Amino acid sequence: MLKTRQILGCSSGLVSHRWKPYSSTGSRQVSFISISTCSKPLLLSSSSSSSTIIPTTTTLLLPGSSPRRTRFGAFSMSSAHSGPNPGGPSSSVAVHSAGNACKINFCQWCGGPTKHEIPDGEEKIRAICTVCDKIAYENPKMVVGCLIEHDNMVLLCKRKIQPSYGLWTLPAGYMEIGESATEGAIRETWEEACAEVEVLSPFAQLDIPLIGQTYVIFLARLKKPHFSPGPESSECRLFALDDIPFDSLAFSSMVVTLKLYAEDVRAGKLKFHYGIINKKPGTSPSDIHAYTLDYHLQS
């Protein structure tokens, strides 16, 4: 259920399940990979071709490796931006904006009026209650979904709700309190495509700082070859790789995910991808191609 808004912090854990190795074609397999994390942010240079991360013990299931436990100490990093204007400047400066804090006029706990200022020891403007002194903190929304492979095609849904009414998307939506990322992705797929799926592995994490969203997309397969439009979809259809409607997709995150998937399939190896989608300043949110994909890391 994705109605109004749009994946890997240094210490974030992406997967807590024990995934089973699989092979959707003869050569594509997945296994546990022990990858690196860090306790404080990394400074990544867009001019470098790779970035080394200090190994710890985080475990992710990543496509394209043999079904055994291995050590993984670095992501490869693309030095070029994806999307329009690939030679443009990188958005590498953190902006300490107020976000939506100035729109919070009343306390969610006691209902008292708020003031908007920077609390001691912090860097951002917050909404602070003038009665109980509690601070309203805003956190990004997590969107989870499935990239479903079936007979060398992918399942897309045509949206029957705003925003992006009538455009195509992977089944995805906001993760709910009390569910895991995989549970949320499975639920959203059922709600939007009436399809029962088995999650196979994580495929992409895409951060969109401008709108406070992070996408986690999983590779999945149909348990049964049945699907139909749910209440939020007007149509569900399987698309061959060359038929994916890239000019009629609902969101930039879908464009990025499906382009990365198509590139991987054509290269004969599925990877795990992380990237930051930065929308071009002054462009409309509905312009799905007005973005750069920065800090693209791939396993």
Automatic annotation (TrEMBL):
Residues 139-262 form the Nudix hydrolase domain. InterPro entries: NUDIX_hydrolase-like_dom_sf (IPR015797), NUDIX_hydrolase_dom (IPR000086), Nudix_N (IPR029401). SUPFAM superfamilies: Nudix. Gene3D superfamilies: 2.20.70.10, Nucleoside Triphosphate Pyrophosphohydrolase. It comes from the Eukaryota. CDD domains: NUDIX_Hydrolase. GO terms for biological process: flavin-containing compound metabolic process; response to light stimulus. One of its GO terms (cellular component) is chloroplast. Pfam families: NUDIX, Zn_ribbon_Nudix. Keywords: Hydrolase. GO terms for molecular function: FAD diphosphatase activity. PANTHER family: NUDIX HYDROLASE 23, NUDIX HYDROLASE 23, CHLOROPLASTIC. This is PREDICTED: nudix hydrolase.
